[in-house]
Amino acid sequence: MKTRREFLRSTVLGASAAWTVPMFVERTFGQLHDASKDLAVQGVTGKDDTILVVLQLAGGNDGLNTLVPYADDTYQKLRPRLAKKEKSIIRLSDYVGLNASMPFLGSLFKEGHLGIVQGVGYPNPNRSHFVSTSIWETGDTNNRSATGWLGRYFDNACPGADPTVGISFNKTQPESFGAVKNPGVCLNSPELYRWIHGGGEQAQAEEFFAKLNQPEEDDDDAPVSGASIDMPAGGKPGGISGETNLAFLERVALDARVSSKKILELAAKHKTTVRYDGFPLARNLNLVSRMIAGGMPTRVYYVSHGGFDTHNQQVNSHDRLLAQLDGALKSFFADLKQQGNDQRVVLMTFSEFGRRVAENASAGTDHGKASCLFVAGPGVKGGLHGKHPSLTDLSEGDIRHTVDFRSVYGSLLADWLKAPDLKPILGADYPKMGLIGA
Amino acid sequence: MLPHAEDPWTLPEAAHLLNRAGFGGSPDEIKVFHALGRTKAVDSLLVPSEPPTAFPRPAWANEEQALADMRGRIEQRRELQKSLRGRSPEEVEKIRREAFQKIQKENRRHALEAQAWWFRRMLKTREPLREKMTLFWHDHFATSIQKVKQPVLMLYQNELFRRHAFGSFKDLTQAVLMDPAMMLYLDTQNSRKGSPNENFAREVMELFSLGEGNYTEQDIREAARAFTGYQLNRLNGKVTHNRRQWDESPKTVFGKTGPFTGADVIDLIFGKDRPARFMAEKIWRFFVDENPPEAAIDSLAETLRKADYQMAPMLREIFLSRGFYAEATVRTQIKSPVQFLIQLLKQLEISDPPAGFPITAEQQLGQVLFMPPNVAGWDWGQAWINTNTLLTRYNLAGFLTKGAEADGKSMEMERAKTPGMAPAPKRMGRGWKGPDYEKIAPRPLRENPEALVDSLVFRFFQGQLPDKARGSFIEYAAAKKGVIFTDKETAELCHLMLSTPYYQLC
User: Where are the beta strands (DSSP E) in B301-390?
Assistant: First the structure.
């Protein structure tokens, strides 16, 4: 297997001075097919492979008003102002129902294309947004890992060096993408995900820009001086041990450059008759669907939906957030179906924690622990997964987790993304859950 | 002592010192600084050279005004309570919410003003090392306005860091224990006898002084009881140690037993060997590079201990050392967003950035002043850079160099939103025309592409660039040199030079 540097050089840099990205991508596939044909799985392969969309519900989603244990007296008693009654939910079982703001997810459930994992969390939960988000993203409950669970998947299960193996539609890179070799790319809006010249003679300027943003030809084995260089790089967010900062910057610059034109082009190309709402989540899922339609080799997309930190007067705001989620997913899956790509996509939601069982004095809820999450798409095994936690056996006012979130990750990695070995990704074995397959 | 750098020093060495110990400067500033000679230049960074009143606080942050406002809010709350009598629960909720939103709105406005105030100070100060150390302490004793909520307390904490910039690490840690913003951030305000909160006890050991593995969970639990009883009086803004809320029973910390207070525990911490090494390592990472050599840390820790934790002698030792100017150190640090922005403005000789530009840029690049992501502070170095932030850096440089009209309106499209913050002003950046290119690249210089590029390379990089890069710039300049090399071509050349991996290093 070639090194990443060699690979990129022989593809994009070996092409001509005019850095045509489509050519790069084409060559990438050629090389990757070659490189991976003897492996049990193919990594970044484009067209027909499975895709995971990770959707973050940022702020701590109130799981108990998402998947509502309407039949539980304790729920009704502890939430006099917030509890949903049986008549105002979408009934899923004798015990739980979906918040009525999510009619699309309700119908998806009935079709068997929505799995709901109940009581997801981890031991010794942390109630800080930051710490708990880190734990979910790194998959490390000690919050010490410098890499993320998806980054480790890219590094360990996706041969090749195409930076678009993972795309996050975010201003900053999610911690879950932290990787030693290939952290994927990160962009906020395709229109701005490019070098904006804005002056005359665009092509000429871009050629110079390209030349300046590619790695030096001959610094691969350049001797490094200084006593401190040999020490292992510790505590950094991924990164190759011993790599200089300049080499790192050149690597990111190259990733940005080769991904930007392609992404911009695809974002403009695919047209859909499906209508999306205008808020960020819907807009970003629309972009994801355009990338998929355009045949990006991306295995994992990451999008966020914020505002779930509902300490105050949460009834309307929380219902509205769920309605936005529902509407965006409705458009997204309709769009994928229209493209004929719906069978290839599974979407998973997550949130850093759930919320306290009892409502607080200002008709909101405070930071809690375990919560529920959704896995959606024709590929999933629909229904309720895991055991709903007891509302009376609480830990500091919070429900206790019944499913470790890494079991969910493990299922999706092994059964959907076909990662051959979970050890290097999750560090340990977690009980598998049958989330995939009819 | 670390081995001394040899005299005389070079212009690039002077630039390196000004970059790392401050936020860089224009070519003229670097030349003046160089003329001082190495030792005098280092000493000039450590002595006060501007009056404490050089940057007046926003009016709302003056003590009397702030106290009056605080009392006013308490009074308003009382009035509000009265007016709620006899109303329906819905009405009560509505009135409460409106009152809350009004306060929130004012807080957000003040937060933006505080952020702009500090940014401007970093840009304009004649004591750059003091501001750089203020930023260091802000990251070390990380506190976020997102939780503290009261901008005035963040500003007072900022002044505390500035006063103690080169002073005793130990005294500053004691002061931080009684700092209102920190008390709210790490919950000491609510920690009392019988229900101690471990937050501060843990972080003071793990993040502020000892590092993981140098204390036990037992030490934390015991210390948490010592950190009880500290209270902020919201009526007069004073912090006191309320003995009635303090757990006076004996505690055992680091194997010593006594009826300790929080201040006693901090004394116990600084009685250990570890804090000096811990700080020496952190300072080395901040100012020099990410892999502190053992020998250097031994020497610096010794200096710090001998000086009873005063920071100035250690800083002086670093900035005079040979290692600081080593080839493996110069131009190898990834600029933080704040460093990137201030340095860029200084190099372009922009003394007043377009309104709203700094905060928008800070948000896009991931370092908003007064808003570190968590108590561990920001992740530095490579963590600043991903494909999106790198392209954003390039495009922010395009906006500054080319002006609002020519940059493709990237700033307008990118109105930043950060949870818990007011969005940046709508009209941000409109009408921005770009820097004064007559000054940056005088007309005669533009006649000669090579001379022009070398002059700009010194302005932006102050050091050697790979031949390939310099060659590209010259080629570009030559290709652009039609009949006249106008400001527009100059701006395009500057933007190209700034749109490179090299420019992200200092």
Answer: none
> Measured between alpha carbons, how far apart are the two ends of chain B, in Å?
26
- List C-alpha distances in Å: B240 to B153, B228, B233, B440: 16, 11, 8, 54
Pick the last residue of a domain from B247, B270, B293.
B270
CA distance A158 to A299: 9
Of B383, B388, B406, the CB nearest to A199: B406
Residue A4 has pLDDT above 60, yes or no: no
| 8 Å CB contact between B327 and A225 | yes
Cα-based angle B326, B293, B319 (whole degrees, multiple of 5): 45
Residue entry with tokens 């002056």: A199
pLDDT of residue B321: 98
pLDDT at A39: 33
Beta-bridge partners for A385 = A117
Of B433, B407, B405, nearest in space to B495 by CA = B407
Find all residues with CB under 8 Å of A9, minimum gap 6, and list them. Answer: A215, A217
pLDDT at B425: 53
- Please give the angle made by the CA atoms of B376, B381 and B384, to the nearest 5 degrees: 85
Q: B341 in a domain, yes or no?
A: no
Rounded to an integer, what distance in angstroms lies between the CA atom of residue B161 and that of residue B137? 6
Asked whether residue B342 is assigned to any structural domain, the reply reads no
pLDDT of residue B254: 97
Q: Do A363 and B391 touch (CB under 8 A)?
A: no
Q: Among residues B237, B270, B303, which one ends one of the domains?
A: B270
Helices (H), B47-88: 63-84
CB-count exposure of residue B423 (10 Å: 0-12, 13-18, 19+): middle
**Nearest alpha-carbon partner for B330 in B12, B9, B11:** B12
Q: Which residue has the higher pLDDT, A170 or B210?
A: B210
Residue range of the domain that includes B242: 59-270
- Let me know: does B48 contact B155? Beta carbons within 8 Å: no
User: CA angle A188-A189-A191, nearest 5°?
Assistant: 145
Lookup: tokens for B18:
């000004």
What is the predicted pLDDT for the residue at B190? Answer: 82
B256's enclosing H/E stretch is strand B256-258
Indicate yes or no: CB of B408 within 8 angstroms of CB of A198: yes
Question: In which residue ranges of chain B is pLDDT below 70?
Answer: 406-429, 483
Number of C-beta neighbours around residue B163 at 10 A: 14
Instruction: Kindly state the greatest CA–CA separation across chain A.
Output: 72
Is B464 part of a structural domain of the chain?
A: yes
B/e letters for B310-319, b = 16+ CB within 10 Å, e = fewer, are: bbbebbbbbb
Q: Among A316, A344, A346, which residue's Cα sits nearest to residue A329?
A: A346
Contact A246/A6 with Cβ under 8 angstroms? no
Q: Please tell me the distance from the alpha carbon of residue B395 to that of residue B407, in angstroms, as a whole number.
A: 8
With an 8 Å Cβ cutoff, is A248 touching chain B?
Answer: yes
Cβ separation of B291 and A225 shorter than 8 Å? no
Q: Chain B contact for A195, CB < 8 A?
A: yes
State the ipTM, two decimals: 0.92
- Nearest chain A Cα distance for residue B165, angstroms: 27
- Would you say residue B171 lies in a domain? yes
Reduce the DSSP state of residue B417 to 3 states and report it. coil
Q: What is d(CA B445, CA B457) in angstroms, rounded to the nearest whole number?
A: 13
Q: Total domain count for chain B?
A: 2
Question: Minimal Cα distance from B380: which residue of A?
Answer: A236
Mutation site for B-interface testing, chosen from A207, A249, A367 by largest number of B Cβ within 10 Å: A249
Per-residue pLDDT reduced to its tens digit, A120-138: 999 999 887 878 999 999 9
State the average pLDDT for chain A.
83
Residues of chain B positioned with their CB less than 8 A from the CB of A191: 413
Asked which of A32-36, A384-388, B46-50 is least confident by mean pLDDT, the reply is A32-36
What is A4-219+240-426's CATH topology? Alkaline Phosphatase, subunit A (3.40.720)
